[in-house]
Amino acid sequence: MEPAQQNFRVQLFITVISVLLFVTKIVAYYCTNSLAILTDALESIVNVLAGFIGLYSLYVAAKPKDTDHPYGHGKAEFVSAAVEGSLIVAAGILILVQSVEHLVWPQPLQQLDIGLWLITATAVVNYIAGYVCLTIGKRNQSMALQASGKHLQVDTYSTFAIVVGLALLIWLHYSWIDTLVAMCVAILVVYNGYKIVRSSLAGIMDEADDRLLLQLIAQLNDVRRENWIDLHNLRIIKYGSTLHIDCHLTVPWYLTVHEAHAEIDAFSNIIQRKFGNTLESFIHTDGCMPYSCGICTKNNCSERQHRFEKKIVWTLDNIISNQKHRLIT
Q: In whole angstroms, what is the distance from residue 158 CA to residue 77 CA?
């Protein structure tokens, strides 16, 4: 199954679960009249809305490239994650407002034991669903699935906090514990919503992903060939689950077009094995210059003009520069 199709099916599964959990939490709230449970239910509304938004974004992202979108439709995932994060922040703020109102006008609580069992069950289901979502999202490089997975796991942590708070309330009989738990959960929800928005905007703005770059650089250093004299101007751009890699590869100037292309194929195949079929590479070849001899490890080069002095290890700092490497003399 293609990654895009798998992402869509997982998101569909998550959306159905979100609807069922929302209904369960609403039942728990009406049984108990607990503000803490209401905050959980309000966040579940966001889960449902975000689920449908994510579903649509993955449907769009899975569309093939066309003349209007030559790089595909993967950016739709980042938009989805931004909307989802914004909804999470809005839910957190609404919970804070409700908490202040309950401090001023407290409401009587009832049947807390029933509510406790119901939301505990939703927490377990949420965690399992979030784990599946995150695992597949990371494997398929899907921002939308990862956002959904993080959201579900945050929802799990906040639900467990509510469970602990309600357990203390049943034990100590202090009604303000309900409001305090709701306010703490609201702050956590707002913070995590902000992180999702921040991450999605980074994708929309093509912010450099140092983690991905370091993984790629480590891979290339391990399998570096002698005809790969230099590598520079390396960039990774994300389009949803698709990665686009641009770079300049310096090879011996005397290679034929076919020989240079064979080096590009070898380079592409190596990074393809690292990142899978969701990767596209655009590699420009440069011919070596006389000053390249000092860093060139190629043996028995008939065109060498200077002796080899030092091998330059590719790092995050020197590989993203738009200049060929040379020794400083």
A: 25
